[in-house]
Design goal:
- The complex is a heterodimer of chains A (264) and B (787).
- Chain A has one domain: NagB/RpiA/CoA transferase-like (Rossmann fold, 3-Layer(aba) Sandwich).
- In chain A, 40% of the residues lie in helices and 20% in strands.
- Chain A is built from eight helices and twelve strands.
- In chain A, strands 1-12-7-4-2-3 form a six-stranded parallel sheet. A four-stranded mixed sheet of chain A has the order 8-5-6-9, with helices on both faces.
- In chain A, β5 and β6 form a beta hairpin.
- The longest helix of chain A is centred in the N-terminal third of the chain and has 29 residues.
- Chain B is an alpha/beta fold.
- Chain B folds into three domains: 294 residues, 3-Layer(aba) Sandwich (Rossmann fold); 233 residues, no CATH class; 114 residues, Rossmann fold, CATH 3.40.50.
- In chain B, the strands form five sheets. A six-stranded parallel sheet of chain B has the order 1-10-7-4-2-3, with helices on both faces.
- The longest helix of chain B has 22 residues.
- The chains are: A alpha/beta (264), B alpha/beta (787).
- Chains A and B meet through α5, α6, β9 and β10 of A and α2, α8, α10, α11 and α12 of B.
- β9 of chain A pairs antiparallel with β9 of chain B, so a sheet runs across the interface.
Amino acid sequence: MARGMASSWPASVGSVLEMASKRQADRETLELFRRNAEAAAVRVVEVATFREAALFAVRLAGEKPAAPLLIPGLERPEGAGKTLFFSGLPERLFGEVSAAALQAGARAARSGARAYAGALDVGFSVAALGIAETASLVLAHRDEDSRLASMLPETHVAALAASSMVTALEEAAPFIERSLALPGSWTTLVSGCSRTSDIERVLVLGVHGPLELCVCLVMDEEDIGEAADAGTGEAAGAAAGKAHGTAAGKAAGEARDTEGGRHG
Amino acid sequence: MAEESRAEYRERLKRLLADKHLRSALDRFARQYPPARRAAYGGADPAAAAAGLARAKDEAIPRLMELYEAFREKAEAKGAKVYLARDAAECRRLVLAAAREAGATRIVKSKSMTCEEIRLNEALAAEGLEVRETDLGEWIVQLRGEPPSHMVLPAIHLDRWRVDESFARETGISSGGDIQALVRLARSALRRDFAEAGLAVTGANFAVASLGALGILSNEGNARLAATLPAAHVAVVGLDKLVPDLAAAAGILKVLPRNATGQPMAAYLSLVAGAAPCPLSPGGVKDFRVIFLDNGRLAAAADPAVREILRCVRCGACANVCPVYRMVGGHGLGRVYIGAVGIALACLLEGPASARNIAFNCLGCGACREVCAAAIDLPLVIEEVRARAFRSEGFHLDQGLIAAILSRRSLMAAVLKAAAAAQGPLVRDGMVRHLPFVLSGDGSFRSLPALARKPFRTLWQELCRGEAMPEEGRVQGAQDPPAEEEAARAAQGASAEEEAAQGARGAADGGTGAQASSAGQAAGAHETAAAAGQARWSRSSGPKVALFAGCAHEFVYPEDLLCGIRLFRAKGAVVSFPESQGCCGLPARSLGWRAAALRTAAVNAKAFDCGGADHVVSLCASCASHLKFRVPLLLAEDKGLSAKAASLAERVMDFSAFLANVLGYGPDDFERTGERAAFHGACHQSRGLGAVREPRMLLASAAEYAATDEEDVCCGFGGAYSLKFPETSAAVMERKLRGLEGAGAHAVVTDCPGCVMQLGGGLDRRGRPMRAEHMARFLAGRLKLRG
């Protein structure tokens, strides 16, 4: 009935109603993501901006005990102390974040992740999409540093634009498909932190990958443009051209715009 | 490697059964798994998801080579090198070549059953390469020099203390049995290997042809690290992992993590399309190779009787719910692959002779079929494997004799008649006592029931004496005998008084004081019902039911059949007994003797092609299930009989479902006493015929139904299984009895004479007061008499 009325109203009113109901659905999807994520021992926080997400990673680095050296002899490049590795962090933020990290007792790095295989406290990366039903993050990272940022650390912080949340895998499929069409592309669905129940079926978090995973939902729509990831750009950009109109397309499109502006 | 003999295999199983650590680890897992799986599906329908996956895989299986070519084209365009290995040896050579070209001396591996299949680690080690398994469970079994005992949980057979022992030996650090500390130890012990290895070897869970992309699932993150850090990566992938597109892959993702580990999704799904940039590589991109393995898969894809096994996504669920796996683990029930699918794959990949031991170590309970992620009819495939093993092995005296006797009614009747006469001095309370050891063999875990003095057929003929119905001759089955009372007495013969006494004793033990033996009641208090039935006959418009007796009821428990007939007639059903019927054929089929199975199928298809019965009912769920689901398959190619077989199958109905749904039995029909009765869901009833609600409703109508956990888990009988593998059968039965006894029930009621034999025999041998009773007998003894 409401739909019938809406169609007889001026177009602008109808689209406002539609937008309002879409935002409502998005809220539900975000809540679904949160519930499922928390069930998988994933921490979900909402932040306004991408900058806040990066600073949240810094805070976690400050609070956690230093990661033990897993490969004796392979020292941290910066010497003793905690390390944060950032991938996909816009140029203009790195200075501020590095300074904050130093204050929190950690050093920030953004290239050569392989050198941190022995010990890395916090890794930060940007997810292209979220899938609420399975609490999955879609990471489309072709470059090694971005991928290692989500594998080597004890704590992985993933920034995800709230508008890039979809409900089911099927909705993410067009994005994944286009991402994989590119040469040498890696697309990873991350649904929780590294885990095992190989011994007596007892669940233990943190085996070879992160011990914990935090998802920062970036709520401010205007800020998404900043949430571009050096690794994501290429794949997502190509995907975006054909996926406009969906949350996936939007996130990817903005990623491309930023990247295109920088490298193109 | 010389194939293990059956005797050696049984000895090995005995050792596994005696392993207390193994038993407790597997028992814990068996209890955890079903609820975890249910929770992971949430509102989603597992059967629908499995059917969807089955459809997608069925489309892919006939075109594996086409998909391979498509994959190769796409992946090579993205810098991957793609190979096809015809067999294990070629596959090993290709991996070795990759290692040499990468200049690797150390290799990190993530878990891959396909690599186990080609025995890759041994080959790499023989070339002086150091191989490190990085999946925690795989690393544990590698340190112990064992093969994995599960496709998903390789070290499920070990407890923390054994893991601690192995880790301490390797690293010099003991974690004192702290599981978290053990995991952290593995994290630090293996990180150097990831960082320094020259080559990674992984498997893949699927390969998407349209994208040239592999999908690799892992929870630990080891597959991602392995595929990322070393400069070279080789993925070894079975050809059956090819799917056309991402939609088909999504179908796998919907079921695989849920079925495998009870998770909505594994922690990591890496989708790898081509060679990614790698600063460590000389060319700046990774040396990435995909080796597809045939090794019998293409032949299986062209083999209609078994090809659905290629749908398998290696979730391991068939092992997780298998009662035999629960007792002996994957080292006992598997070769490379584990559980039901392990039986099938052993046959397809290594030949029928390799499967001949494990193929028969299956109860045929059908639990695997219910949970299969790809809706594979695993029991059906295992029956086919048995038939092939049987052919490859040639004639075996024990199997041959059993099959020969079972498939020929007259021979069986003669043998059993002689046995019934000979058993006389050995029988007391309806059980065979003092059986010389040479005859009881290893079957002493349960008492054996005595053979009935008169088989059912004789009783039926006595019932019908002088009462042959004009419509149907004796051969096709006389109907509705009036002299049931007399026959019921005859069934018990000289032991009638003993039976009645036993019934009373059982009741007294149970504390109800109200129950007489139901057979006794059927015999003693039945005049009115019999008379009523007689009166009803001429004008009855009730359903016509043809009775399928089944061997166990015909020769061991004929009085149960009389109870069944009484229940049918009390609601106005017209009963016939087509006398040319024989053994249902399930035993011959289970033993792998196709010719005998065909013969019995034909006999029964013809026997029931008469009389216009609306329903064919057996009090044996196994017989009914075989008639309904196997006879039409066996006779599908037989022009003269396929229609008859289909018509028979159409009319076969579960006994309890017939009572409840056709005859309308319910709470008003029984004298409900305070007796506590537990229920055992016979495999072929609850899973085969799908009758779950009805027997429980009937039981609750006649007694206080004491629900127990795992009611539908097999009792361990499995027909010939309990003779072939008595130790495992006994272990499965023990577990079942413990569960039943926990309910404080006086009786356990079931719809299958095999289960009655197994559970009743086990209870008797242990001197337990609980008795096992067929539903027909239990209900008939509590039927309200109407004027």
